[in-house]
Amino acid sequence: MEKITAIKGIKDILPQDSPAWNQIETAARRIFGDFGFREIRVPIMEKTELFKRSIGETTDIVEKEMYTFTDRDDELITLRPEATACVIRAYIEHNMHNYEQVTKLYTLGPMFRRERPQKGRFRQFHQINAEALGDEQPQCDAEIIFMLVNFLRFVGLNDFSLEINSLGCKYCRPTFSRDIVAHLSSVEKNLCTNCQRRIRTNPLRVFDCKVDSCGEVIANAPNILSYLCSHCDEHFKLVRTFLEDLKVSYTVNSKMVRGLDYYTKTAFEVTSSNLGAQNALAGGGRYDGLVSSLGGPNVTGIGFAVGMERLMASLPRKQEHDYQTDIFIAALCEKAQKIAFLLTNELRSSGIKAQTDYTAKSLKSQMKRADKLNSSYTLIIGDNELEDKKVQLRDMKAKNQISLPLDNLTEAIKNIFKEKS
Ligand code: HAM
């Protein structure tokens, strides 16, 4: 029969990789918790309109990367391509602004974008996402970047760069956009056909284009930082000062605009040199108009998302044992199997990681299995042991063994583990 494989660009996370994923997620929960963030779990599917209105109709994500389908009642549904829009939808729907002036939320989980799969780029990928709502002060921007940097260092990433920029606000951005349109129009023929269209639909997106000739046009484009109004300029200066106070190294990149339309003021991106072409490990920024544009109150926000697959790929791989077993019960005959069945499950109920084998294989092959399962002890029960009413407990690391009476065996083993812990 032909086998059914996973969908292109969508990967399994295998048991040998899960411990490392869990460690990262635990670290995020701990560090974000220290900064006052609480976990929210939002749905994987939302109404398509949510992403159109927040990420922007003319972004690559919305134009060509969303998994959208019509539900049976004709409603347009999309698998979330990012989490920010979902978190804000939930924030508004549950009136969270009424409980606390500043709401800090984080969420972990899969996102879906129909991009061309390549190294570090998947169609289902995972993000760790943090959003702080209701604090418009530049300290908040510096603090959230500091939290991201702390987290990356904590999980063992040392080699990364942080770039920051300011994208202005609804008052100063239009002037910049007008001048960008003028600049791009004057050299339109040098742009790829996609960017020629973007001049009219979403000129800022030309900054993200990877085509060489478009890169040259952008190199000579007006600089967004010289268009900032005094409020945005002051905000950006203060963010930089606070980052310096917190000893966070960064570079300013005035060409970094991020691929989503909701950003205002501070934008930032973390890249890692050992990732290749898809080197953006994390990205985020301020989005002061997003909550109100989704029908919520006039509340400001800032956040970021870390790409789990890219983070995992840039961390040094620790060689850990796949399996961790406390005791393997080698049952060598049918009667021994009956004892092993009860014993294994009683030990498991007491928090001891016990394994056995019900096929009564030879002692040699069962010892091999115990090794494979990385077992600390192996308990040997065969015909001889049953006759003597004594079983052998082998310490697999020290390579010695003791006998234990068959009566009250469960208690005796439990006591051994109790003493060890
Ligand atoms: P983003 O830059 O689109 O931002 O994605 C954040 C991170 O997700 C990227 O830096 C990357 O590590 C990872 N990522 C994105 N697409 C893929 C993919 N196809 N395959 C593997 N990894 C990927 C956002 O999603 C914003 N919502 C971040 C944010 C939160 N801004 C404010 N709050």
Question: What can you see in these coordinates?
Answer:
With 421 residues, the protein is an alpha+beta fold. The protein folds into 2 domains: 242 residues, Bira Bifunctional Protein, Domain 2 (BirA Bifunctional Protein, domain 2, 2-Layer Sandwich); 87 residues, Rossmann fold. Helices cover 38% and strands 22% of the residues. It has 15 helices and 16 strands. The strands form 3 sheets. It has an 8-stranded mixed beta sheet. Strands 13-12-14-15-16 form a 5-stranded mixed beta sheet, with helices on both faces. Strands 2-4-3 form a 3-stranded antiparallel beta sheet. Helix 1 packs antiparallel against helix 5 and helix 5 packs parallel to helix 9. The longest helix has 17 residues. The chain is elongated, with a radius of gyration of 28 Å. The two termini are 49 Å apart. The mean pLDDT is 95. The site of histidyl-adenosine monophosphate has 24 residues, from strand 6, strand 10, strand 11 and helix 11.
Topology:
Blueprint: H1 18-34, E1 38-39, E2 45-47, H2 48-55, H3 60-65, E3 67-70, E4 76-79, H4 84-93, E5 103-112, E6 124-133, H5 138-154, E7 161-166, H6 173-186, H7 193-201, H8 212-219, H9 230-245, E8 251-252, E9 264-271, E10 280-286, H10 290-293, E11 301-307, H11 308-314, E12 325-331, H12 334-349, E13 354-356, H13 363-372, E14 375-381, H14 383-388, E15 390-395, E16 400-405, H15 409-420
Parallel strand pairs: 1-5, 7-8, 12-13, 12-14
Antiparallel strand pairs: 2-4, 3-4, 5-6, 6-11, 7-9, 9-10, 10-11, 14-15, 15-16
Helix pairs in contact: 1-5, 5-9
Bound molecules: histidyl-adenosine monophosphate.
